[in-house]
What we know:
The protein is mainly α. Helix content is 73%, strand content 0%.
Amino acid sequence: xxxLQNSSSATAAGNGxxxxxxxxxxxxxNLNQVxxxxxxxxxxxxxxxxxxxxxxxxxxxxxxxxxxxxxSELDTMQKLAENCNIQVPMEVVNLIDDGKNPDEFTRDVxxxxxxxxxxxxxxxxxxxxxxxxxxxxxxxxFPEEVEAYREIRxxxxxxxKRLAQAQSILPNGDVKVKTEH
Length: 181
């Protein structure tokens, strides 16, 4: 029994057989370690299920070993999860609790974004149409002023474009970020 506990603690100390070779603060590596621990726990639970389903007196020691392995791996998983900061929306948790597919949440979010995008596009198109209509009406009433306005707009647009290129700013106002590898 002592050798079983020693092997369990060796597994726990070894992070479930996962070696840390890079930065322990790397969120992607932390997530991968948790995922590997979850997969190992699922395998151990399956082994435990098989042992329990065919239980007899002779399988008592393997049952205890598998129980210790599950507990040890759950401890390892909990320790690894402390370095992994993932936020899951409550809607996803509620869907899982209701026995539904969490992909429904993603689908609903995307469909909501598409609907809001269409509404915003409609408003933008309406304002563009209004602007065009107003300029046409103004041009008929004040042709010289509209021509001066268009010249000012063209000069301003050219200046903004020149500044954006000089400052590496994208046309939508975002700044280009150089990725360092």
